[in-house]
Amino acid sequence: MKDHSSNEAPSSDSMLGFHWTFATVAHLHLHAISPTNQLSFWQKIEYSPYIFATVDETVRMMEKKK
Ligand SMILES: [Zn+2]
Q1: What is the 46 CA–ligand 1 centroid distance (Å)?
Q2: pLDDT value for 23
Q3: What is the SS3 assignment for 46?
Q4: How far is CA 11 from CA 34, 40, 49, in A?
Q5: If pLDDT is split at 50, 70 and 90, which confidence band does 62 have?
Q6: How far is the CA of 3 from the centre of ligand 1 (A)?
Q7: Quick one: pLDDT at residue 21?
Q8: Confidence band (pLDDT; 50, 70, 90) for 49?
Q9: How far is 57 from 42, CA to CA, in rounded Å?
Q10: Which residues sit opposite 53 in a β-bridge?
Q11: Could you list which residues have their CB under 5 Å from ion ligand 1?
Q12: Does the structure show a pLDDT above 80 at 3?
């Protein structure tokens, strides 16, 4: 019998980050998305790197603004 356990989604299949806009970083809200491979077409746009930043990216962005 074949072992299918290797087909299970990896734990990296989730995303934690902030939504922000180019105009103002004052509006930030946190999102936890999982699993990321089940996002709809519009959700993929909503969580694209243009308007969505991971926690690390957001921290780096805030530090640059100082
Ligand atoms: Zn949002």
Answers
A1: 7
A2: 53
A3: helix
A4: 9, 20, 20
A5: confident
A6: 39
A7: 66
A8: confident
A9: 22
A10: 18
A11: 19
A12: no
pLDDT of residue 35: 92
- Comparing CA positions, the residue from 33, 25, 5 lying closest to residue 65 is 25
- Enumerate residues 6+ apart whose C-beta is below 8 A from 31: 15, 16, 17, 18, 19, 47, 52
Q: How far is CA 40 from CA 17, 19, 32, 34, 43, in A?
A: 18, 17, 15, 12, 5
Q: Report CA(48)–ligand 1 centroid distance (Å).
A: 11
Residue 44 has pLDDT above 50, yes or no: yes
And the tokens for 15? Answer: 């995303």
| C-alpha torsion 12→14→17→19, nearest 10 | 140
Q: Return mean pLDDT, the chain.
A: 79
